[in-house]
C-alpha cells in the first residue's frame, strides 16, 4: 500500500529520515517498525573532518528549531572505515549525503559513496545555509549544473539534489538539476533565520543566523514542492516541517513522491512509525492510493 519508487529503487514507504536528524548511526532504526521507513538518509559527509560552528548552535522556538551546526562530521576516511561497514545488510535503503566547498569535494565524496555496498543512493547537499566559504550551488543554476554533472559521471546510483528555499525563484535551479542528471530533488533545506536573546542583547546562536526547521518551515516547503513539481518531471522528495500524516498527504497532493521527517523525530524518535500507521489507515478508509493523490493539487 505504501510502496514507492524513485529511479531504480523500490521503497517500502514514502517516508524517509531527513539528513542531519538521525546522524550517521543506523542504530536509529531501532525506533522504527520494519516496513514503515522507506529510506534512511544520513548526515552530510565532507572530504575532511569538520568541527562545525561554535556553540550554542541550536535553539528552539514556538515554530520549531533554528540550528547552525555547520556540517560537523568526522570526514570521509572515518565514514569509509567506520560507518560504511555498518550500513551493509540493513533492512532499508541508505541514502548517503555528500557535502563540500567545491566541485572536487563533491566528486571525491560521491566517488567514495559509489563504491560502498551499503549506500543505495546519494543526496547532494548543495544548499546548507550554515557554512562559511565556498559557492552556494543552489542559488546559481550554472554552478549547480556543474557540480551535478561532475557527480553524475562518477556514479550510476540514484542521485538526489537538495535545493535551497533561500532563493527568489527555485524553478530554474530545479530544471538545471534535472537536466544535469538528478534522479530526484529534495525540496528543501532550511530557511535562514535568527533568534535573539533580548536580555543578553545577542543572537541566540553563536553563528548569528541559522536554519529554520520544523512546522514553521512547512508552508514555504509546500510552495516550493508545488513549484518544482510543475517545473520538472523527476520525483520530488519533500522536506520541511512534516510531523503528522496530514502533513505528509498535503505534500503528496502538492506533488511529492516521498516525504522526509526530520525535526519531529527530536521530540518523538518513533514518529515515522506512527505516521506510517496513520497513512495506511487513511488510505484504506478513503479507498485511495498514493498514486491517485500525488500531484492532484487543483490550482
Give a description of the structure.
The protein is an alpha/beta fold and 299 residues long. The chain has a single domain, classed as Aldolase class I (TIM Barrel). The chain is built from nine helices and 16 strands. The protein has helices at 76-87, 103-114, 141-152, 171-179, 218-231, 245-254, 264-267, 271-286, 290-293; strands at residues 4-6, 9-11, 15-17, 40-45, 58-61, 64-67, 94-98, 121-125, 159-163, 184-187, 191-193, 196-197, 202-203, 210-213, 236-239, 258-261. The chain has an eight-stranded parallel β-sheet. It has a four-stranded antiparallel β-sheet with strand order 5-6-14-11, with no helix packed on it. A two-stranded antiparallel ribbon has the order 1-2. The longest helix is centred in the C-terminal third of the chain and has 16 residues, at 271-286. The two termini are 27 Å apart.
**What structural class do helix, strand and pairing data support?**
alpha/beta
CATH architecture: Alpha-Beta Barrel
Which CATH first-tier class would you pick? Answer: Alpha Beta
Shape: globular
Total of DSSP H or I helical runs spanning 4+ residues = 9
Which value, in Å, is the CA radius of gyration? 18 Å
Largest sheet composition: 8 strands, parallel
Amino acid at each position: 500500500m505504501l510502496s514507492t519508487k524513485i529511479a531504480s529503487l523500490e521503497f517500502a514507504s514514502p517516508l524517509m529520515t531527513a539528513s542531519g536528524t538521525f546522524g550517521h548511526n543506523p542504530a536509529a532504526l531501532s525506533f522504527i517498525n520494519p516496513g514503515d521507513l522507506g529510506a534512511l538518509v544520513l548526515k552530510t559527509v565532507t572530504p575532511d573532518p569538520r568541527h562545525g560552528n561554535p556553540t550554542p548552535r541550536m535553539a528552539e522556538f514556538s515554530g520549531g528549531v533554528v540550528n547552525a551546526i555547520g556540517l560537523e562530521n568526522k570526514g570521509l576516511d572515518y565514514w569509509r572505515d567506520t560507518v560504511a561497514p555498518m550500513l551493509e545488510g540493513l533492512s532499508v535503503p541508505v541514502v548517503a549525503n555528500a557535502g563540500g566547498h567545491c566541485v572536487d569535494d563533491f566528486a571525491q565524496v560521491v566517488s567514495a559513496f559509489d563504491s560502498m555496498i551499503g549506500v543505495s543512493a546519494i543526496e547532494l547537499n548543495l544548499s546548507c545555509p550554515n557554512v562559511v566559504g565556498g559557492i552556494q550551488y543552489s542559488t546559481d543554476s550554472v554552478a549547480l549544473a556543474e557540480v551535478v554533472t561532475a557527480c553524475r559521471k562518477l556514479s550510476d546510483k540514484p542521485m538526489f539534489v537538495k535545493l535551497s528555499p533561500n532563493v527568489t525563484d527555485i524553478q530554474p535551479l530545479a530544471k538545471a538539476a534535472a537536466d544535469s542528471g538528478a534522479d530526484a530533488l529534495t525540496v528543501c533545506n532550511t530557511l535562514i533565520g535568527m533568534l535573539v536573546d533580548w536580555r543578553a542583547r545577542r543572537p541566540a546562536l553563536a553563528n548569528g543566523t541559522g536554519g529554520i526547521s520544523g512546522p514553521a518551515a512547512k508552508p514555504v516547503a509546500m510552495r516550493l514542492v508545488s513549484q518544482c513539481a510543475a517545473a520538472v518531471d523527476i520525483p520530488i522528495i519533500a522536506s520541511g516541517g512534516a510531523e503528522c500524516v496530514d502533513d505528509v498527504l498535503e505534500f503528496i497532493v502538492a506533488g511529492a513522491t516521498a516525504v522526509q521527517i526530520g525535526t519531529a523525530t527530536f521530540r518523538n524518535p518513533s514518529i515515522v512509525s506512527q505516521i506510517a500507521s496513520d497513512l495506511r489507515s487513511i488510505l484504506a478508509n478513503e479507498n485511495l492510493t498514493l498514486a491517485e493523490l500525488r500531484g492532484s493539487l487543483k490550482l
